[in-house]
Amino acid sequence: MGQRKASRDGDRKVGRRALLIGGTVAAAGSAVLARDELARLWWRTPGVEKPREAGAVDYTGARWVAASDANWRRADRPDDFGIDMVIVHVTQGSFDSAVKAFRDPGHKAATHYIVRQDGHVTQMIRELDVAYHAGNRDYNERSVGIEHEGFVDRPQDLTDEMYEASARLTARICARYDIPVDREHIIGHVEVPGTDHTDPGPHWDWDKYMRLVRRARTTPT
User: Fold this and answer.
1) What is the band of 219 on the pLDDT scale with cuts at 50, 70, 90?
2) I need a labelling partner for 149 at 20 to 30 A (CA). Which of 22, 30, 120, 176 fits?
3) CA distance 48 to 89
4) Please, is 10 exposed, middle or buried when counting C-beta atoms within 10 Å of its C-beta (0-12, 13-18, 19+)?
C-alpha cells in the first residue's frame, strides 16, 4: 500500500471510437463486430449498470468486504481491459487498518484482495473492476492487486501461512486469465513504472513465492 495515497484513476469515457462504431462496422460490412463492440460498451451508457451479485467473490474461500466505490472504477474485465498481471503489495500496517483505509472514500486507493498473516483472504473489489492500487492507470487496468498484512522492514510479518495463501490466490488468478507464472507478469508494487512505493520490500522472498505459485498452479483444485 505504501506511504502515499494513489491519485484517482478517472473513468474512461465513451468517445469518438464508440460513436463511430456503427459507421466503421457498416463500412466493413461486419455485423459480428458491431455486436461484439456493443456488448463491451452498452453498460457505459449513463444510467445503465451491468447486473452484479452483491457479496459475490471471485476466489473460493475469500470473505467479501466492499471497498468504497471512490477507490475503484467499474469495468467489465477482461472484455474491456485484458488482465495479464498480478501486483504484490505490503500494507505497511495491520489488516484492520488496511480494510479501514480501503473503505474510506478519502483514501482514493484499494487493492482487490488483502491476505492476512494467518492466511485469511478478504476480497474488497471484484476482479472485473479496476482497482486504484498501482499508481499507474495502464497497470491498474491490466492487473489484479493483492495486499499482504505487515511492514516491509519486518521479515517476521511475512509468514508461511501468508505466502502459501497468497500463492494459491495468485495461481488461481493466473489460471483464470491465462497469465504466465513468471516475474514479468507477477511483480511488486515497486516495479510499477512511475511509482514511489517500495513494497513488497527487500524481505519479500520472490524465489519462495514463485515456487509456491507454480506448485499451486499445477495442483488440481
Assistant:
1) confident
2) 176
3) 33
4) exposed
Q: What is the largest CA-CA distance in the chain?
A: 62
Q: Give the pLDDT band of residue 38 (cuts 50, 70, 90).
A: low
**All residues at 6 or more sequence positions from 99 whose CB lies less than 8 Å from its CB, including other chains:** 65, 114, 122, 124
- pLDDT digit string (tens) for 110-166? 999 999 999 999 999 999 999 999 999 999 999 999 999 999 999 999 999 999 999
Question: Three-class SS of residue 214?
Answer: helix
Three cell numbers at 18?
464508440
Q: How many residues does the chain have?
A: 221
Averaged pLDDT for residues 28-33: 47
How crowded is residue 185: how many other Cβ atoms within 10 Å of its Cβ? 17
Residue (of 198, 201, 75) closest to 132 by Cα position: 75
Cis ω on the peptide bond leading into residue 78 (within 30° of 0)? yes
Grid coordinates belonging to 76 = 467489465
pLDDT in tens, 177-209: 999 999 999 999 999 999 999 999 999 999 999
Q: CA-based angle 159:87:197, to the nearest 5? A: 85
Is the alpha carbon torsion for 182, 184, 185, 186 positive or negative? positive
C-alpha cell at 179: 497469465
Rounded mean pLDDT, 46-68: 84
